[in-house]
């Protein structure tokens, strides 16, 4: 497309005025007449049989309107569905009830619900409910849970194995036997808690006179939620409206269908009154999904010159106590397909066991599967470099897919659209002044100071699509996106998008694109999202797909608008449409620029409809459902430089350089912001964050004081740069930028710290690399 | 218990439960929903307001403790349609993404700049430690506060 003045400009966000003045439209701000507050009584045990529930004290409390147990809701709510049914994996989807009926299977499982006049009363009453449990043995570790004799969560899921997914490309045994170098490593990619700053919640309002249910909720994908609300409550989709305007962060945790929102809806229908439920942060930590949590066994075959000849992975993915909405797809397709990374690895075998345990369910958390794959690859490459005494940058360079090989088909079947991996690596090396850094590292080591340089060269799968692939992978939906562009008689424009940004700033980015395409002022373009009553349909915002898929749908709809407008203008100007040109919002006769009319004049005429060309209907509104031909594949190189104090294990960040290639960039300011935030989360996995369970299944890091979220003083400033390789997959040339930082940062930081510890003979440590873990490793290495 | 609290320059008198938190008083009684709740343990700082000019976490204060106090919330920061320099800095420097932590972060920054009009990057990072942002990685928040500091110093000189 033509690069005009708004495409590529750091336009200030139009979302911000309401958000910086305290006028955002978050779910918890909704207040309706007659609204009741809901509180959920949750299991304190990881695994137990419910013997008896006594709600009498709670019911008798003044201000309490109703109390429900799981049994009371069985007829009102179906099981919570899983929507990613991975084929050929012997998948077993256990029945999951929004409120437990006979057994609880994780700390946080709902056992009863109270609605009351206000939240204080509802919480008091929930405390007053007495539940007698028969506590059962719990299992937390997925590898142990898959062994015979482990506690069983479900009678119909033997050994707690919900699925075994495999993808075997090439002859690994031959590669292994012929290898000059063989590396084996067990890697732990530990569990994280997404922690969107806005907790999850819903206001459900059922109108008995119309039979309509309106749910304001914290959703990344309101239309998918509407479908699932319909499936579980039995109400037709046509009677359900889901609204999620301002959503306070998601990172994947607001994709799934959860118990709380469904319970509020069922109770609103039962009582005919609006119900508000907003989780506490502790509830968020135990009952909103977690992410990652793999134990991986990796074998890497290579030649002595550094060429990788084969990779075999056996991974145990901890699914938690039930299969969350998209969960089975995350450690399988989203993990296994990208295991080639940016490298020409000819043979790849992956086996993944999805294991149920007595823990909070896991699902997509920022990056979803791709961070687990990238950390694995990047750690193995560094181990290979160490084994061969090669520079880690050069091992990467040696194995890169060369830029002339694109489009490139990986052994796992992905077709990488475009790439120039060496350019990103070279730019990053230049930005850190690599050779000087290595010299400094040598010097400092002589002084007993330990500098480390860590790399991560990654490829990621973005613009999650196309629908045909989604179907083949067992995703119970398409992965297209819709857009409706409505031009009003004044020429002002409303865009209805199925994407649902929750911090990504698409109200701004999308308006930039539309203003450019139609040649109308930026201020004249309104972007509407997050309301199923207004937007025709949508698949939502996740997988870095909003611009690549949703943005393209908007471009295609505006082009249909222009075609129709050109016909109307040509008719009014009494020329053939092909004799017209369109520039800067004005149609004019080629060769006679004075004969023309503005886009706004055409819009008015489309609605007046006094003089329309034959066969052209009045109005100026178009809808486009865009289903891309392929994913997009952003890539880049991140380099982290740290200094480690071996006596305390503390890590100081000296420098962090990110060179990302996300294709064309509409708003550089917004993309930089996405990269910053992504790096912060990825870095935090490497050194801070860790969801800790004890062996009984108690979440030890169940508050913000126990879960080590990064604070401002715990992070460095990042140097962010880009190379630009536009994707041929969409007319914007845009690939997606939401997850690159998270995917790249964890291995870059871990590799830097382990590089710093090389003089101690330390080759690998599992993340998070906390001071204690580093200190202990150094102590052991020193022989204490 | 009866409390009289001045919020954003307007005096209110209400009967409240002794256990009602100031944040719930602001949100549920006064309908000032710009002050957010992000945790239960006083960690996140989304609920930060100014009480008698100083930043406090309104989830950690009972409404009755604010009896007689002057409270400024995010809604009271802009004057006569003119954004406060800190608000302006957040908009100019892309100091927010989802915007949920933003009101608390802005109130903390206002307090920080009152105490230290010319903070270093390190002082800013230390000064906003009581506020958690999950979207930005803080880099642009630091820039936003630096922008505001510069602007406030310039107008003080003028």
For the sheet with most strands of chain B, the description reads: 5 strands, mixed
What is the distance, rounded to the nearest whole angstrom, between the alpha carbons of the first and last residues of chain A?
A: 64 Å
Radius of gyration of chain A: 28 Å
Our Rg estimate of chain B from Cα atoms comes to 15 Å
Would you identify the regions of chain B where 5 or more consecutive residues have pLDDT less than 50? none
Describe the structure.
The complex is a heterodimer of chains A (784) and B (158). Chain A is of the alpha+beta class and 784 residues long. Helices cover 29% and strands 24% of the residues of chain A. Chain A contains 21 helices and 28 strands. In chain A, the strands form seven sheets. In chain A, strands 3-5-1-12-9-10-11 form a seven-stranded mixed sheet. Chain A has a five-stranded mixed sheet with strand order 7-15-14-13-8. The model of chain A has no long low-confidence stretch (mean pLDDT 97). Chain B is globular, with a radius of gyration of 15 Å. The model of chain B has no long low-confidence stretch (mean pLDDT 97). Chain B has 158 residues and is α+β, with helices and mostly antiparallel strands. Chains A and B meet through helix 1 and helix 19 of A and helix 2, helix 3, helix 4 and helix 5 of B.
């Amino acid at each position: 497309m033509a690069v005009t003045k708004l495409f590529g400009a750091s336009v200030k966000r139009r979302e911000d005025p309401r958000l910086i003045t305290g006028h955002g439209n978050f779910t918890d701000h909704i207040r309706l007449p007659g609204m009741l507050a809901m509180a959920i009584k949750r299991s304190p045990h990881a695994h137990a049989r419910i013997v008896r529930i006594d709600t009498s004290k709670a019911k008798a409390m003044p201000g309490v309107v109703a109390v429900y147990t799981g049994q009371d809701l069985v007829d009102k709510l179906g099981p919570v569905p899983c929507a990613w049914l991975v084929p050929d994996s012997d998948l077993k989807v256990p029945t999951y009830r929004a409120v437990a009926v006979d057994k609880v299977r994780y700390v946080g499982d709902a056992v009863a619900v109270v609605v009351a006049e206000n939240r204080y009363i509802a919480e008091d009453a929930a405390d007053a409910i007495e539940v007698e449990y028969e506590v059962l043995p719990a299992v937390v570790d997925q590898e142990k849970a898959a062994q015979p004799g482990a506690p069983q969560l479900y009678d119909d899921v033997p050994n707690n194995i919900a699925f075994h997914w495999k993808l075997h490309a090439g002859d690994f045994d031959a590669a292994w036997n012929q290898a000059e170098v063989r590396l084996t490593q067990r890697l732990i990619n530990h569990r994280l808690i997404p922690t969107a700053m806005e907790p999850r919640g819903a206001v459900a309002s059922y109108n008995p006179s119309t039979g309509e249910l309106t749910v304001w909720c914290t959703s990344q994908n309101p239309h998918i939620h509407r479908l699932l609300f319909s499936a579980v409550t039995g109400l037709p989709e046509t009677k359900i409206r889901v609204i999620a305007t301002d959503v306070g962060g998601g990172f994947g945790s607001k994709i799934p269908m959860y118990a709380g929102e469904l319970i509020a809806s069922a109770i609103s229908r039962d009582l005919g009154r609006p119900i508000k439920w907003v989780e506490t942060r502790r509830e968020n930590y135990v009952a909103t999904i977690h992410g990652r949590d793999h134990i991986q066994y990796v074998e890497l075959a290579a030649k002595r010159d550094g060429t990788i000849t084969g990779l075999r992975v056996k991974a145990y993915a901890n699914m938690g106590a039930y299969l969350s909405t998209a969960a089975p797809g995350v450690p399988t397709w989203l993990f296994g397909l990208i295991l080639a990374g940016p490298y020409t690895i000819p043979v790849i075998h992956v086996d993944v066991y999805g294991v149920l345990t007595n823990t909070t369910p896991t699902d997509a958390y920022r990056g979803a599967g791709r961070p687990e794959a990238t950390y694995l690859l990047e750690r193995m490459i560094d181990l290979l470099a160490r084994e061969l005494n090669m520079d880690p940058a050069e091992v990467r360079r040696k194995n890169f897919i060369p830029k002339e090989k694109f489009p490139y088909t990986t052994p796992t079947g992905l077709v990488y659209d475009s790439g120039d991996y060496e350019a990103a690596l070279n730019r990053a090396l230049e930005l850190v002044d690599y050779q000087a850094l290595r010299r400094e590292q040598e010097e400092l080591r002589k002084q007993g100071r330990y500098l480390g340089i860590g790399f991560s060269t990654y490829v990621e799968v973005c613009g999650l699509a196309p629908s045909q692939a989604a179907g083949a992978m067992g995703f119970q939906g398409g992965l297209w996106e819709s857009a409706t562009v409505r031009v009003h008689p004044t020429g002002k424009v409303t865009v209805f998008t199925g994407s649902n940004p929750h911090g990504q700033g698409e109200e701004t980015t999308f308006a930039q694109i539309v203003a450019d395409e139609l040649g109308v002022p930026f201020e004249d373009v309104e972007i509407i999202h997050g309301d199923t009553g207004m937007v025709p349909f949508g698949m939502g915002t996740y997988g870095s797909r909003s611009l690549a898929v949703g943005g393209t749908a908007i471009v295609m709809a505006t082009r249909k608008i222009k075609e129709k407008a050109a016909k109307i203008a040509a008719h009014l100007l009494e020329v053939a449409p092909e004799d017209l040109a369109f520039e800067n919002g004005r149609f004019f006769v080629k060769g006679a620029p004075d004969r023309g009319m503005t886009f706004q004049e055409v819009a008015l005429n489309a609605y007046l409809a006094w003089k329309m060309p034959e066969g052209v209907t009045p109005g100026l509104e178009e809808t486009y459902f865009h289903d891309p031909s392929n994913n997009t594949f952003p890539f880049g190189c991140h380099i982290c430089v740290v200094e480690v104090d071996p006596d305390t294990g503390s890590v100081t960040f000296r420098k962090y350089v990110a060179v990302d290639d996300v294709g064309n960039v509409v708003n550089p300011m917004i993309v930089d912001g996405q990269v910053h935030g992504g790096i912060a989360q990825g870095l935090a996995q490497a050194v801070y964050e860790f969801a800790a369970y004890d062996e009984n299944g108690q979440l030890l890091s169940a508050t913000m004081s126990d879960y080590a979220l990064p604070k401002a003083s715990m992070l460095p400033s990042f140097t962010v740069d880009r190379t630009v390789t536009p994707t041929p997959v969409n007319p914007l040339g845009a690939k997606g930028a939401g997850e690159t930082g998270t995917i790249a940062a964890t291995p870059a930081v871990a590799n830097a710290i382990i590089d710093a510890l090389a003089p101690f003979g330390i080759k690998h440590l599992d993340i998070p690399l906390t001071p204690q873990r580093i200190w202990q490793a150094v102590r052991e290495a020193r022989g204490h | 218990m009866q409390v009289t609290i001045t919020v954003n320059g307007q005096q209110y008198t209400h009967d409240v439960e002794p256990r009602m938190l100031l944040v719930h008083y602001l949100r549920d009684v006064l309908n000032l929903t710009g002050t957010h709740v992000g945790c239960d343990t006083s960690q996140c700082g989304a609920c930060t307001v100014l009480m008698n000019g100083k930043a406090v976490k309104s989830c950690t204060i009972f409404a009755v403790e604010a009896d007689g106090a002057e409270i400024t919330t995010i809604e009271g920061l802009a004057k006569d349609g003119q954004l406060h320099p800190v608000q302006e800095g957040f908009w100019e420097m892309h100091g927010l993404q989802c915007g949920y932590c933003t009101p608390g972060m802005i109130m903390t920054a206002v307090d920080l700049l009152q105490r230290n009009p010319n903070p270093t990057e390190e002082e800013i990072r230390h000064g906003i430690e009581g506020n958690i942002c999950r979207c930005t990685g803080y880099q642009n928040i630091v820039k936003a506060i630096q922008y505001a500091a510069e602007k406030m110093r310039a107008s003080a000189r003028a």
